[in-house]
């Protein structure tokens, strides 16, 4: 296990258990207590947790893992979902990508498509995610449009009036939206109202809205709504989606793709 993988697991345990103890974490991860103490000290220096006597607790009352520590969660499912989403995009389209781990994988899947290796441009990608723009800007066949705005360090997303002003002047063929929750009755949502406002506007500027989400995010609610279910044309998820939820989404007019 690398240090990055160990830190990821430690932060996961921190969220799951609302705190970690050195000895218990060492046993769970199969490393020495000295290694865990060192890891916790280094994570505390990054203000990702608060050290306590014998362990650590989450930093603050509203805890969210930064994007770089969430990339390995349900990685296999996200990879399949991202490849299926990328297959929906036609050469020459204008594609909108919100921030998030799954949409980042979609960007990578688009970059790997052989039929998008050339063109003038092969795709136009509109995004408010700094990390997605950074990965795709080196590909000359892609035209990258990055919104302005204020950067959220947890998600690398640009939000606020500047981002909304840019999106309000653009038209998108397909918006690929990452979500924290998608419920047939309550619609697609995220934890933060500033991200929801930008993502909502992207949906209104798109001819087609695709939600890319693994099954753990379905049938649950989050604080800030992005759009109602009727706005979403296609949901791409994994095969763990329950039959009852699948029927509810299809009853609301959403096309389901399960991979």
How would you characterize this protein structure?
The protein is of the alpha/beta class and 259 residues long. 37% of the residues lie in helices and 24% in strands. It has helices at 3-17, 22-29, 33-45, 75-87, 101-112, 130-136, 161-167, 193-204, 243-251; strands at 20-21, 49-52, 55-58, 94-97, 123-127, 142-146, 150-152, 157-159, 172-178, 181-183, 187-190, 206-212, 224-227, 234-237, 255-258. The strands form four sheets. It has a seven-stranded parallel sheet, sandwiched between helices. It has a three-stranded antiparallel sheet with strand order 1-3-2. A three-stranded antiparallel sheet has the order 10-11-13. Strand 7 (150-152) and strand 8 (157-159) form a beta hairpin. Helix 2 (22-29) crosses helix 3 (33-45). It is globular and about 55 Å long. The two termini are 28 Å apart. The mean pLDDT is 91.
Number of helices: 9
- The overall average pLDDT, rounded, is 91
- SSE ordering: HEHHEEHEHEHEEEHEEEHEEEHE
Strand order of the largest sheet: 6-5-4-9-12-14-15
Number-wise, the strands total 15
Main sheet overview: 7 strands, parallel
State the end-to-end CA separation: 28 Å
Beta-strand residue fraction: 15-25%
What radius of gyration results from the CA coordinates?
A: 19 Å
Which regions contain 5 or more consecutive residues with pLDDT less than 50? none
Protein structure class = alpha/beta
* Large-scale geometry: globular
What percent of the residues sit in helical stretches (DSSP H or I)? Answer: 25-40%
């Amino acid at each position: 296990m690398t240090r990055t993988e160990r830190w990821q697991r430690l932060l996961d345990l921190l969220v799951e258990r609302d705190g970690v103890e050195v000895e218990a974490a060492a046993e769970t991860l199969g490393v020495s207590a000295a290694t865990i103490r060192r890891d916790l000290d280094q994570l505390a220096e990054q203000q990702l947790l608060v050290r306590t006597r014998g362990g650590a607790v989450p930093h603050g009352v509203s805890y969210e893992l930064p994007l770089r520590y969430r990339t390995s969660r349900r990685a296999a499912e996200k990879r399949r979902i991202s490849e299926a989403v990328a297959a929906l995009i036609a050469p020459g389209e204008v594609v909108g990508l919100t921030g998030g781990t799954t949409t980042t994988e979609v960007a990578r899947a688009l970059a790997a498509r052989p039929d998008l290796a050339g063109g003038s441009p092969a795709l136009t990608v509109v995004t408010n995610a700094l990390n997605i723009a950074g990965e795709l800007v080196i590909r000359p066949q892609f035209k990258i449009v990055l919104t302005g705005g204020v950067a959220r360090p947890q998600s690398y997303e640009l939000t606020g009036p500047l981002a909304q002003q840019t999106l309000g002047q653009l038209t998108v063929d397909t918006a690929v939206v990452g979500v924290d929750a998608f419920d047939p009755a309550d619609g697609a949502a995220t934890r933060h109202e500033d991200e929801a406002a930008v993502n909502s506007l992207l949906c209104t500027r798109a001819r087609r809205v695709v939600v890319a989400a693994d099954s753990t995010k379905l049938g649950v609610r989050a604080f800030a709504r992005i759009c109602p279910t009727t706005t979403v044309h296609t949901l791409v998820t994994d095969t763990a989606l329950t039959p009852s939820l699948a029927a509810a989404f299809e009853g609301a007019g959403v096309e389901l793709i399960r991979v």
